[in-house]
């Protein structure tokens, strides 16, 4: 057993007992109340999931095992002191609740390099889809095709005891994370670079290797990818991609099925697809109003465009959030990155200007709970700056990163022995009866 599994088991055996005790002895303890409004508007704020990897505070944003983004930018191992932390370190922290050393991060980089052996049929399955199919269709299909290799599924069929499910889940999760960048880069090269495939470079870390396989080999892009894959990794358990992964795996579907399902949720325009919508939307705006700076009269033109767009019943991508009530700290981290490394970029300037113009317009509608920008408002402009123009691909990049958090959590779901998820539903008459109407 490798040392990560040993640590996991040690911590897991203790925590599993706690979960069992909570269920057995405190099962009737009231945790929350639920209102009609909450049930009918997406269960916002209803505590109903156990997620250990991260927690989201509406006012201060995401904390991974208690650490904020700036704290982790300081504390997680980097390849050079000026650079960005390696996402491997964040995975280690989320999985083991312990800050990694440089050696721990190196261990994971090596492990993922070793495990990066995508079966040939996965590429055949992707190739069977027309190149015009959406990158997220190809991505989730490729992940489904990987399920032939599931060790968890095999172990389950062989009757492995429940307390051991976590072990093969961990193996599947490690293999899946190791192989995702190769599959994603394959889709990118197939769709946008004439199918000229670049093999992985075993000397590179996980994020840099992803950039390399996509065809971007500069220290600057490696640095961007390390930050990107770190920032999108997790957002507690209730977001659509995390919750879907958790829900599907609660039926003991294998991690490949569960993660593919999570990715089909990420592909929705109100979730991860918003990162490509932001660029599409800005380009559409610039086509209509022309290239613009952020002087008062230009701000007015933008504000009018925003108002018109909303009046057509559409949402402004990259703004708003189901939980956050402040500017997303992931947006702030990317803005700081741009201030440090990006000079004179029109798209980045427009994104900065939208920060001044859009929130007051959204506020003026009187119904938007959070008028501030989210992670997706900034990410595309940075990718555009480094020449990664194909915004149809951006949600796949989000998906590669999201694996780190939701799959670390999946290992814990199995460690705790969490049962099948099955909330109660009621017909409309029941709600009318409750309201007395
Ligand atoms: N532009 C226009 N209207 C908005 C926006 C926006 N950016 N955000 C919220 N609203 C509207 C929303 O459509 C709803 O209208 P109605 O009552 O007519 O249906 C009203 O404001 C209240 O919505 P909220 O309760 O504030 O937001 P909710 O929790 O329902 O949804 C989002 C959260 C993120 C889905 C929503 O803010 C949105 O659609 N934003 C744009 C899409 C986006 O950027 N998504 C990415 C989220 C982050 N991620 O990566 O997943
Ligand atoms: C996410 O990163 O999952 C999004 O911000 C959406 C969410 O948290 O609901």
Automatic annotation (TrEMBL):
Q: What is its EC number?
A: 2.3.3.16
From which residue to which does any coiled coil extend?
A: none
Q: What class of enzyme is it?
A: transferase
Pathway assignment reads: Carbohydrate metabolism; tricarboxylic acid cycle; isocitrate from oxaloacetate: step 1/2
Which Gene3D superfamilies did the record assign?
Answer: Citrate Synthase, domain 1, Cytochrome P450-Terp, domain 2
Instruction: Indicate the secretion signal residues.
Output: none
Q: Which residues cross the membrane?
A: none
Q: Name one Pfam family in it.
A: Citrate_synt
For this protein, the record's PROSITE patterns field holds: CITRATE_SYNTHASE
Q: Name one GO molecular function term.
A: citrate synthase activity
An example of a Gene Ontology BP annotation on this entry?
tricarboxylic acid cycle
- Highest rank taxon of the organism: Bacteria
- Provide the alphabetized UniProt keywords: Transferase
Q: Does the keyword Cell wall biogenesis/degradation apply?
A: no
Stated family: Belongs to the citrate synthase family.
NCBIfam families to which the protein is assigned, alphabetical = PRK09569.1
Its recorded name reads: citrate synthase (unknown stereospecificity)
Q: Which organism is it from?
A: Prolixibacter denitrificans
**Encoding gene (name):** gltA
């Amino acid at each position: 057993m490798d040392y990560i599994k040993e640590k996991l088991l040690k911590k897991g055996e203790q925590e599993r007992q706690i979960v069992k005790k909570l269920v057995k002895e405190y099962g009737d303890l009231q945790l929350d109340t639920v209102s009609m409004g909450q049930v009918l508007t997406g269960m916002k704020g209803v505590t109903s999931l156990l997620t250990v990897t991260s927690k989201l505070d509406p006012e201060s944003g995401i904390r991974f095992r208690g650490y904020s983004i700036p704290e982790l930018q300081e504390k997680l191992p980097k390849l050079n002191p000026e650079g960005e932390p390696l996402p491997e370190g964040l995975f280690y922290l989320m999985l083991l609740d312990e800050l990694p050393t440089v050696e721990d991060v190196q261990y994971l980089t090596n492990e993922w390099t070793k495990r990066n052996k995508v079966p040939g049929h996965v590429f055949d399955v992707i190739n069977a889809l027309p190149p015009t199919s959406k990158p997220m269709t190809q991505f989730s299909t490729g992940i489904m095709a990987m399920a032939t290799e599931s060790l968890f599924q095999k172990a389950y069929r062989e009757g492995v005891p429940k307390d051991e499910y976590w072990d093969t889940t961990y193996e599947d999760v490690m293999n899946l994370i190791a192989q995702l960048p190769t599959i994603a880069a394959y889709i990118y090269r197939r769709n946008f670079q004439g199918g000229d495939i670049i093999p992985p470079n075993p000397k590179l870390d996980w994020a840099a290797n992803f950039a390399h396989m996509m065809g971007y080999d500069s220290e600057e892009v490696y640095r961007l990818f390390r930050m990107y894959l770190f920032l999108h990794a997790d957002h507690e358990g209730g977001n659509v991609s995390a919750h879907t992964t958790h829900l599907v795996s609660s039926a003991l579907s294998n991690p490949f099925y569960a993660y593919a399902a999570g990715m089909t949720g990420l592909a929705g325009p109100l979730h991860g697809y918003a990162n490509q919508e932001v660029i599409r939307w800005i380009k559409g705006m610039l086509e209509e109003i022309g290239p613009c700076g952020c002087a008062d009269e230009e701000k007015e033109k933008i504000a009018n465009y925003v108002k018109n767009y909303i009046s057509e019943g559409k949402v402004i991508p990259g703004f708003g959030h189901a939980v956050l009530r402040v500017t997303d700290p992931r947006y702030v981290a990317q803005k700081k990155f741009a201030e440090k490394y990006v000079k004179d970029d029109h798209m980045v300037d427009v994104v900065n200007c939208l920060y001044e113009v859009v929130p007051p317009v959204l506020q003026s509608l009187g119904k938007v709970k959070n008028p501030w920008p989210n992670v997706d408002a900034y990410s595309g402009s940075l990718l555009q700056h480094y020449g990664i123009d194909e915004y149809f691909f951006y949600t796949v990049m989000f998906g590669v990163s999201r694996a780190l958090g939701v799959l670390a959590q999946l290992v814990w779901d199995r460690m705790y022995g969490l049962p099948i998820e099955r909330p109660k539903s009621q017909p409309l008459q029941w709600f009318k009866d409750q309201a007395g109407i």
